[in-house]
Amino acid sequence: MVQRRSWLAAWLALAACAFPVRGQTPEEIWREFVEWGQKRPRENPARKSMMDLYVEDLVGRGASEEEARRRWKVIAYEMRPRSRENNQFFWDTLFRLRSGPDHPLKLLVEVVKDLKPGRALDVAMGNGRNAAFLASAGWQVVGYDISPEAVALARQRAESLGVRYEAVECDHRQFDYGRERWDLIVFSYIVADEPDMQEVFGERLWNSLRPGGRMVCEGNFCEKLIRRLVPLDLPGFRLERYSDAEELREDWGSGATKGRVIRAIVRKDP
Ligand SMILES: C[S@@+](CC[C@H](N)C(=O)[O-])C[C@H]1O[C@@H](n2cnc3c(N)ncnc32)[C@H](O)[C@@H]1O
User: Fold this and answer.
1) Ligand 1, atom 24: nearest CA belongs to which residue?
2) Which of 13, 52, 178, 200 gives a 20 to 30 Å CA spacing to 171?
């Protein structure tokens, strides 16, 4: 009897130490992520993606890789979009950890080499990698982003490279797109929720593009964008390129993972 009790005590102690697997609510998983994000030091010399850092830390604390990845999905796809605060915290943490690439989007480099520089808008500009590239190629650039960390990095980048562009801290719905204002609008791995799609990325976006201007898009958002614009039957709308393929995601994330890469180029005929 004594022996059975001590075995039971040992088992209970082990169970208490083991990483809590199922049973946590999405809100609890998010709260843990917030704590993790607040505590994790900025250092990230290998420039790993935030997902890789998070999964690695959880596995180091005893979680299985499968459980760590399940939690990441809850954080990134279920809890992040739940509120503006969550969304902002997520991206602020990512940029605080210096995640996200520094090189410009290859598609953008390829497209602008044949274009005459004009006015460009970098939607959800992140750390300014694309704005800096465009500015150094002679474009007059404005970018905006919801994350103060991202905007601060974008401004630092302009300063350290000695280029000029405007970096505005605001969200999609707050930004004034104007009318026939942009020769080029860049969507590089942006995210947008359904109200953004309805309010911003239909006529408002289209009216802000100059005749002869182009929109360059890469990432999952492009599918939503094209689905939103096509039924509007917009005058001058021309889909110059659309592709959706499984390939190495070199322009966002760790660069080592294969995934769906969607690209779109839209022109507004003069
Ligand atoms: C995957 S990152 C891409 C950043 C940048 N375009 C690039 O390619 O490096 C997504 C960006 O969207 C921004 N973002 C998320 N929700 C936003 C919103 N509602 N309004 C404006 N920016 C937003 C994030 O802060 C983040 O910088």
Assistant:
1) 91
2) 52
Longest dimension (CA), the chain: 88
How does pLDDT run across 255-268, given as a tens digit for each residue?
667 889 999 999 99
CATH label of the domain that carries residue 157 = 3.40.50.150
Domain that holds residue 63: 18-96
Tell me the sheet residues that pair with 187: 123, 217
- From 47, 74, 96, the end of a domain falls on 96
Residues of the chain with pLDDT under 50: 1-2, 7-17
Q: Is the CB of 112 under 6 A from ligand 1?
A: no
**How many angstroms is it from 160 CA to the middle of ligand 1?**
22
CB 145 less than 6 A from any atom of ligand 1: yes
Query: pTM for this structure?
Result: 0.91
In this structure, are residues 120 and 139 in contact, taking their beta carbons and an 8 Å threshold?
yes
Residues 6+ apart with CB under 8 A from 252: 100, 101, 188, 189, 219
Q: Which two tokens stand for residue 175?
A: 């930004």
8 falls within a domain = no
